[in-house]
Amino acid sequence: MEMELVSAARMKELERAADAAGLSYRQMMENAGYQAFEEIERRCPQLKTAAVFAGKGNNGGDGFVVARLLAADGVQVRVVLCEGDPVTEDAAYEYERLEDVEIWPLDELEAEQEDELAACDVIVDALYGTGFHGALRPNGLRAAALINRAAGLVCALDLPSGVNADTGETAQGAVQAGVTITFHARKQGQNTPAAAAHCGEIVIADIGIHAALEGKTV
Fold it and tell me: Fewer CB within 10 Å, N side or C side of the chain?
């Protein structure tokens, strides 16, 4: 069976169609975060500490779901806000649901906090996802450098930050993940050698789109 590959634009089409079919964007975010949480816990059953580097868009929202679920399971979680508070409705909703999680703005990190982040058992890259193209902005570069310093498992949500979903082109300083949990289907760019080197192992997570669109042509 031929592997399904989707572009960033095609992924947006599929999400729109799933939303119209009754699977809300918020539920897709919840499903994505839950699938990532399950994969992380499967790989790290003795997990005690985790850090989630979150952007201001929906990839950050996926990360907030992961953070909430990990914290509820007794993991000490730190969320690093890399570009300020979330700006999308669904990501802001998930941000407000966080409990028992330390929130650290990237711009305010001190050396001691950076060392704590580097020592976490798991680092979750929830900065950009499929929306990235071009070069990493200064905060993105700093966040990626901190992630790449980490001793623990680096888990990217959808794509490592700094990797183009369509071309696979990697920006200077892009995140080097140990595992990438990509949602619904592989992205086109993940089939290129450059992107594959940054993604590590790629796990495809079902977030409900297949079931929502069963029998429909999109």
Answer: N
- Give the gyration radius of the chain's Cα atoms: 16
Three-state DSSP class for residue 215: coil
Contacts of residue 197, Cβ cutoff 8 Å, sequence gap at least 6: 170
Q: How many CB atoms lie within 10 A of CB 108?
A: 9
Q: What is the pLDDT of residue 2?
A: 54
Closest C-alpha to 9, from 207, 165, 204 = 165
Tokens encoding 194: 């450059």
Answer for the pair 112, 104: CB distance below 8 angstroms, yes or no.
no
In contact, 162 and 139? CB cutoff 8 Å: no
What token pair was written down for 123? 């680092």
114-167 residue pLDDT tens: 999 999 999 999 999 998 989 999 999 999 999 999 999 999 999 999 999 999
List the strands of the sheet with 153-157, edge to edge: 101-105, 76-81, 49-54, 122-126, 153-157, 179-183, 201-205
